[in-house]
Amino acid sequence: MGDTRANGRFRSQEWFDNPNNPGMTALYLERYQNQTFTREELQSGRPIIGIAQTGSDLAPCNKIHVFLMDRIKAGIRDAGGVPMEFPVHPIQETGKRPTAALDRNLQYLSLVEVLHGYPIDAVVLTTGCDKTTPALLMGAATVDIPAIALNGGPMLDGWWQGKRSGSGSMIWESRRLLAEGKIDYEEFMQRACSSSPSLGHCNTMGTASTMNAIAEALGMSLPGQAAIPAPFRERMQAAYETGRRIVEMAHEDLKPSDILTREAFENAIVVNTAIGGSTNAPPHLVAIARHAGVDLTTQDFQTYGYDVPLLVNMQPAGEYLGESFFRAGGVPAVMEELRRAGRLHEGAMTASGRTVGENISGLGSLDTDVIRPFDQPMRERAGFLVLSGNLFDEALMKTSVISDDFRQRFLRNGKFEARAVVFEGPEDYHHRINDESLGIDEHTILFIRNVGCVGYPGSAEVVNMQPPDAVLMEGIRHLPTVGDGRQSGTSESPSILNATPEAVVGGGLALLQTGDRVCLDLEAGTLNALVEDAEWQARRAAWQRPELTHQTPWQEIYRQTVGQLGRGGCLELATAYQRISKELPRD
Ligand code: FES
Ligand code: MG
């Protein structure tokens, strides 16, 4: 069986309208016409548009999609399509233990299986919370039927005592105040809840806003929709327009492979720096690229993104939240500032059917305090550095959150030599961080290991470790931290993270011991343990791969199949499956 669109037919017609096989056609038809659809519409030759529903009570960041569904379906029907909503495996960033990252590849798998195995011609991807956006884009790339992303949008701005209260950022700040004894438990909880005032995903430039800006920058959504706050009327309208547009895309056969080109990924990297995007963007973007058959590496983030300025004044790198970003023009305004500076590939095709340049031309910043002009940025050279050394082959550092205080306190000519204190995971960290015998002071770098994809499992957002209470009391808000896990996109901590390979598979981090001297050199892009070669080799020889305990079958499958964060944390075997909609499944 070949490419069904090449015959002028939609793939769903092989289920519902296949004269060569009346028996199977009847079997498919009778059940789908029993409630929601009529036989006539299923046999009308109109495209069937799947809507991948990520929202539910379990997944509150995406629950807005439950309410957007009417508008998506109305748009699809008005444009002559037949909508079919279906659930995908839920992901809630903050609710899923041991970590939501474990489930990104599971949601990816579930989407691939649904899109491949059911009569779906094109799909609306309802995105939002951190992992849902990359998971669905990865799945759409593997299957390669026409696909469009619709973000649920950020929550309204939170407020606490007259100040903006941002998702994540408010909790990191408040737990420091709690540790310092400046607020009590009750105020801590009230402050946390103030940052979450409505439906929607995180209102800071955390991983959710980052990944949806990236989906738009890649060209996988309609322009201008990523930043619309969830409760706004414009969000309902974007849902309707997205529904209309995906039907046209089905007829045009405009597929992810037409949009997810090398140029699109380079655009996304540039946009990621300009918005102050999350350190989770590199693994997710590399994963999307690999499933799309595009060769992208973490190093590309430094090559294309490091010298880009930070334009968006949004927490955690800046001051504002999602409502201001939207009113200032959102992603198109940022992209137009970058386009005028010659930093974008203007000719990249997008879901709108127009190029990047055609989508954004003339749409500049509407509030230059929130979205800065290219030549008056928040910060120059605001991208990620990719470090290497004897502790790892690569790790990532987000430079846009390194405060002046941090630079002055720790860096001498870009270098910092310090004593390592090593934790074996978050439980060990919580247990021992205030242990005075560790001797943690401002000449210390905190390390955490066994928290990568295989180790945790799933890679945990724990590298942004808070200093001990005694150090906080001295006014030191951050110590440098290093780990083989990730950190929250809402954290302002200048961590070195996503270290690849991780400790449990034998990365150099596994050999480090508390008390070792380490040297961070930002100019050279290195972090090294200053340990004699012979001693390092002896530790390597003595190292044994740890026994890992799985708590669920998926944890075991995941650990056996997952790659490293530097390569996207993909289900490695899945990257060999490319554009699988070219072949129909068996009847
Ligand atoms: Fe879901 Fe931030 S926790 S978007
Ligand atoms: Mg997160």
UniProtKB/TrEMBL annotation:
| Gene3D superfamilies tied to this protein | IlvD/EDD C-terminal domain-like (3.50.30.80)
Q: Does the keyword Protein biosynthesis apply?
A: no
Residues annotated as domain Dihydroxy-acid/6-phosphogluconate dehydratase N-terminal: 46-359
Give residue ranges for domain Dihydroxy-acid/6-phosphogluconate dehydratase C-terminal.
369-568
Q: SUPFAM superfamilies, per this entry?
A: IlvD/EDD N-terminal domain-like, LeuD/IlvD-like
Q: Which family does it belong to?
A: Belongs to the IlvD/Edd family.
Name of the molecule in the record: Dihydroxy-acid dehydratase family protein
According to the UniProt entry, its GO molecular function terms are: hydro-lyase activity; iron-sulfur cluster binding; metal ion binding
Organism (species): Palleronia caenipelagi
Q: Is Iron-sulfur set as a keyword in this record?
A: yes
Q: Which PROSITE patterns match?
A: ILVD_EDD_1 (PS00886)
Top-rank taxon, per record: Bacteria
